[in-house]
């Protein structure tokens, strides 16, 4: 069983820890927070044995096999690099880095220290994402796809009220494309690989991050349109259109609600049962890579390609983060 440490004590950390324990491959060994009492409050229900308010001390703890990082986006790269250099395997919440160059540096550091770096992007590991993958050849050739994730953020009203929530703060490498837009980009790259070209537009808020936007990824024979928003809701599913029919996905992040409509036939529900905690599957995948002792090259390439696309989207839309000035090595 792998002994896991956690950096970050928010809801997503709790969800991942519960998923990791559910796999029976992990136990929670340690928790880091700037406030050690918050670390204790988070870790005590899971019988964690150590609590830290020092990353140096966390990295020096030889009982820890792997570290899950769920801090604000701008902290992902420096914290991951610190843990990798300390000889810890790392599973880092998406987006793993603020930009492409940082993502490259992270994987280089993992390789130099013979440890695994894994990006926590749950979608590709769910059974219903595999259903989506398997269904696409049945509607081939593919001609068009629209992948949408638009969800009004509960923090947007705070932003409108003059507050400065992390969600809309460039200091934390946030915004729509870096948050829920990641699911759109990541799903497209997982399904179709690196695009031939990227065209992006966005509504940039006065804070400097995007509130919503659209991206067109060009592939041989078809385009993929991505719609993302944290300032509005979408009521329509993602759709993959082929000459033989269409596949609909109600929620691209989890694969919920997969349906197929072949030309001239009735709608067919393809959805399979899944674990309620969708992070279960990424935790399983991480454990598999730990047992192998290295990251799957396709997983690594997907993470790098997504980081490359996200960086290009921000370049085109004029979204710049303070983290873009950081050089890690």
TrEMBL record:
<dbReference type="InterPro" id="IPR055170">
    <property type="entry name" value="GFO_IDH_MocA-like_dom"/>
</dbReference>
<feature type="domain" description="Gfo/Idh/MocA-like oxidoreductase N-terminal">
    <location>
        <begin position="2"/>
        <end position="120"/>
    </location>
</feature>
<dbReference type="InterPro" id="IPR036291">
    <property type="entry name" value="NAD(P)-bd_dom_sf"/>
</dbReference>
<dbReference type="Pfam" id="PF22725">
    <property type="entry name" value="GFO_IDH_MocA_C3"/>
</dbReference>
<protein>
    <submittedName>
        <fullName>Oxidoreductase YgjR</fullName>
    </submittedName>
</protein>
<dbReference type="GO" id="GO:0000166">
    <property type="term" value="F:nucleotide binding"/>
</dbReference>
<dbReference type="InterPro" id="IPR000683">
    <property type="entry name" value="Gfo/Idh/MocA-like_OxRdtase_N"/>
</dbReference>
<feature type="domain" description="GFO/IDH/MocA-like oxidoreductase">
    <location>
        <begin position="143"/>
        <end position="247"/>
    </location>
</feature>
<dbReference type="Pfam" id="PF01408">
    <property type="entry name" value="GFO_IDH_MocA"/>
</dbReference>
């Amino acid at each position: 069983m792998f002994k896991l440490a956690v950096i970050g004590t928010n809801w997503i950390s709790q969800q991942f820890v519960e998923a990791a324990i559910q796999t029976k491959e992990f136990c929670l060994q340690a928790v880091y927070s700037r406030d050690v009492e918050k670390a204790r409050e988070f870790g005590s229900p899971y019988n964690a044995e150590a609590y830290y308010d020092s990353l140096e001390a966390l990295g020096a703890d030889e009982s820890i096999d792997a570290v899950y990082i769920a801090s604000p986006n701008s902290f992902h790269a420096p914290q991951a690099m610190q843990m990798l250099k300390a000889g810890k395997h790392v599973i880092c919440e998406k987006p793993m880095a603020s930009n492409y160059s940082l993502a490259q540096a992270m994987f280089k550091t993992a390789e130099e220290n013979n440890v695994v770096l894994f990006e926590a992007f749950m979608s590709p590991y769910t059974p219903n994402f595999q259903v989506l993958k398997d269904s696409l050849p049945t509607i081939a050739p593919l001609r068009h796809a629209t992948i949408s994730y638009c969800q009004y953020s509960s923090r947007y009203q705070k932003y409108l009220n003059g507050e400065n929530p992390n969600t809309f703060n460039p200091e934390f490498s946030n915004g729509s494309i870096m948050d829920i837009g990641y699911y759109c980009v990541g799903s497209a790259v997982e399904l179709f690989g690196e695009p031939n070209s990227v065209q992006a537009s966005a509504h940039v808020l006065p804070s400097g991050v995007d509130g919503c936007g659209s991206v067109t990824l060009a592939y041989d024979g078809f385009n993929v349109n991505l719609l993302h928003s944290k300032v509005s809701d979408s009521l329509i599913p993602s759709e993959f259109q082929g000459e033989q029919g269409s596949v609909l996905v109600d929620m691209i992040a989890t694969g919920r609600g997969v349906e197929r409509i072949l030309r001239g036939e009735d709608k067919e529900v393809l959805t399979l049962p899944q674990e309620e905690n969708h992070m279960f599957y990424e935790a399983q995948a991480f454990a598999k890579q730990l047992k192998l002792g290295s990251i799957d090259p396709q997983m690594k390439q997907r993470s790098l390609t997504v980081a490359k696309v996200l960086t290009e989207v921000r370049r085109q839309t004029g979204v710049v983060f303070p983290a873009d000035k950081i050089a890690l090595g």
